[in-house]
Design brief:
The complex is a heterotrimer. Chain A is of the alpha+beta class. Helices cover about 35% and strands about 25% of the residues of chain A. In chain B, the strands form four sheets. Chain B has a five-stranded mixed β-sheet, with no helix packed on it. In chain B, strands 1, 13, 16 and 17 form a four-stranded mixed β-sheet that branches. The chains are: A alpha+beta, B mainly beta, C mainly alpha. Chains A and C meet through helix 1, helix 2, strand 7 and strand 9 of A and helix 3, helix 11, helix 12, helix 13 and helix 15 of C.
Amino acid sequence: MHWWLPEAASTFAGPIDGLFLAILIITGIALVIVEVGLVWFSVKYRARPGRKAFYTHGSTRAEVIWTAIPAVTVVALGIVSNHYWVQIKGRNSVPPNAYSIGVHVKQFEWQITYPGPDGQLGTGDDFTVRNQLHVTVNQPVVVHLTSEDVIHSFYVPQFRIKQDAVPGMTINAWFQATKTGEYEIGCAELCGMGHYKMRARVFVHTPEEFTAWMAQQAAGGSE
Amino acid sequence: MNRRLLGMIGGAVVLAVVAASAARQTAEAVQAGATISGKVKFTGVRPTNPKIDMSEEAACKAKYPTSPTAETVVVNANGTLSNVFVYVKAGLPAGATYPAPTTPVTLDQNGCRYHPHVLGIQVGQTLNIKNSDPLLHNIKAKAVKNRPFNVSQPNVTATPTVRTFNMPEVMVPLECNVHGWMNAWLGVLPHPFFAVTGADGSFSIKGLPPGTYTIEAWHEKYGTQTATVTVAGAAPKTQDFTFAAH
Amino acid sequence: MTAVAHPKTHESHEPMSFWRKYIFSTDHKIIGIQFLFVSLFFLLLGGVLAMQIRWQLGFPNTAMPLGTMLPEAMTSSGVILPEYYIQLVTMHGTFMVFFAIMPLLMGVYANFLIPLKIGTHDMAFPRINMWSFWLALLAGLIMVAGFFVPDGAARAGWTMYAPLSARPDLSGATYGQMLWSVSIVVLGLSSVMGSVNYITTVINHRAPGMTWFRMPLSVWALFITAILAVLALPVLQGAAIMLLFDQTIGTHFFDPIAGGQALLWQHLFWFFGHPEVYILILPAMGMVSDIIANGSRKPIFGYHSMVFAIVGIAFLGWIVWGHHMFMSGMNPTLGSTFMVSTLLISVPSAIKVFNWLGTMWRGNIKFTVPMLNAVGFVSMFTIGGLSGVFMAATPVDMHIHDTYFIVAHLHYVLFGGSLFALFAAIPYWYPKMFGRMMSEAIGKWHFWLTFVTYNMVFFPMHILGMAGHMRRIYDPTVYDFLKGLQPMNKFITLSAFALFAVQVLFLFNFLWSLKRGKKAEQNPWQDNGLEWSLPSPAPHGNWERAPNVYRGPYEFSAPEAGNADFLPQHVKLPTDRDPAAATAPPSAPAH
């Protein structure tokens, strides 16, 4: 069984997993302090005959300490997080050389439109494949997410990418796969009775494989 | 379980009442009347139906030796057209009622396609919906005059999902949203005078009482055509239809 | 020291009929008790729905025991259908949030505690208070009716994201979806009525000497929560009415097919929804503060910063709603803003946790059942609070958003937090409600078994979420990357059954003690609050004359108390001066 984050297969995995680990360490320390404190005090200060509690209403110094330390920690965390957030989802984050793919989502399918041999979406040689996303390794890809009916969410765990597809909006989300292989797309937003069945596959190819696949599709499909 | 039981009792009572009142008339009408039959011909260039990409549904894909296609226009070898719904649109005696047959109509989902692709049913007649695929299908009936429904069958069904329709409606579109290519058409009529053309493109409507009828032929792509046919006694009549490619 | 401060006696009233006294009662205590029974029923119902969810996740495609008893619209040969599964998910969330936890905290304890703790005879508007209960019950019944209408109950998740919730053709649900909207409108009405009452009562009806900073933290929390509720619920009501119009008369507020905005619903819902999260936790924090001070026999550590933390959480609670929408397609710059406010809200929560620890430090801790559960609250809420930091960091949220990590987080806050607080509060104030004690022995068994099985259920969900297990999916085995996690899903399911079974202990203890529990003393926990100056159970009308308050509620182990380790708020020491005129009308109303 898997006890950690999934295999890392995109450029986002590095910073996200690093941030995850950092937060885990910080919150882990806080958790240990609190839980050990609870157990320790529970044992040490348990009621015994003849004892009386120490009468105090608190300490301003203590309040300042445990206000300031969490505040500084979370602000630092916020600054680091925002640095990566802007790189991943910021308005201008999509690399200029990203390969465009149209992903139109409907109950309960992914219709994935490729630009065809000319590399341009919206031209006559575009073709659409159901539930299969083919990309090239180490090549930035931008998916133009649209939805036909309700809100769906494009999620590839190994790429650490998630983006809702909202009817009435076109949302661009980019990623860059770093490992060839086959992965799964899941729908991460409840979209109806077939939500769980909205599974598609991602194929990360070498450039040669991708060109071959593209040529085969442009010639009329796999059969 | 209670709801099913109640439904069964209710259904039985209704059936008994309806059957008692209408049994005589129907028996005479359907068995003794005239027959209208014919063929639905197709002219022009046969369109090719698009291939269906079932590569992400292995269980369905395995059911086909070659790549399956859509069933929008099915032209038979003899130049006739399949999946045309032919029915009596008007002309039946006012006030006549026709009890629903007790035999159910079955719609099967097999190989990620509906079988049959076009079907007719009488008001009140049972529609059994079954799933022969080991995967999820949902069945959405986009009815307008009847109550629409949208139900799912996540696996091969042990017992079919049962539905009935209360109002005549030609046609009720049926679709599966898990597999966007899956669609079927259901004609709901208050009488038994309808037929769907098959592999030889022919149809026959039996047991019509004497009278003048409007017969309509419906095709999902080519629309409708009507003809007026008068029958008297038990003499059979022939009425062909022709749809042209466009 | 144990003198009874002018309690009302039953004899001072003409006898009331059963209906007037227990059903259409305007007595805040009876209304609180009515809320208690009704919300415990909904809690049980929510639990039953959860068990069915867990069955499906642990044993997909397997007939559920007794599943064949359900109608064929829900199950097929005993196997849960996908459309029923999403109804279960939706209604579990709806019942737990709106009809179990929220009324348990606000309906029960705001009603029961506020007048008793601030020293007044009843709420400011007793009849509105009665209406608040009956409307809540009506709303609950409307919600339950969803399961019995054609096409079944609402099924767009408890968050009701549009356009799925707005379009019957897309969801497959018709009347059930409309009933959800109607029920929420009615519930909002109930909640606003209750909250207006709580706010007015706290402002105007405090006993002489009960200054703002002598109020127990439970009252502070309930007061601030009432302000949140009165501002937040109308937003949800408005949104629910718009949703109802979309569902019935063909408006398209939330459907872009005719010019609507899908994200509008999310903004409205979460503008309500995040304050709602604090509505569900602040009263728990307040009551736990009272119980921890009592159990530690020590004044609460940092009373003022505890009050400011409550106010701070309530304020920041209004500007964090967007953190539910990081992946929604909202402008990413807004994401940055909401991330900062969300991270900041962890500061007042941290202050509270450290102050509870500070309260226990050098205390003389008596582990009664309420205290055990209160300490359980602190330890579990801490996990829930800390796991929230992961989601607040937007890049990490991209991976764990809408996965089981969120499910784990929200259950650590709502079950580990709010429900443990209720397991503390219910036995703690039980004697004042019913005049009897709940069994300590059963209570301790219940606490430890719940604590263990609860963690067995919800802790592994973090790991499922890290692996990418999406929320609200009917059958995880459809995905190759989730197939390997099925043993964990099974383990969670079996643990959930155990957790559910353990709750029978609580239910038994609660019901059995009504008649058979040990007779309660006036002040069984040796607490300082004004409610303990009344007999158990507290009589109708509470006090003949409002008690005088001489000090704050946490004077445990004060030197002035002499040999006793507590000093009630109403006890006058020779050095105390009588307080100035009351804010409260001192006499009871005419009946």
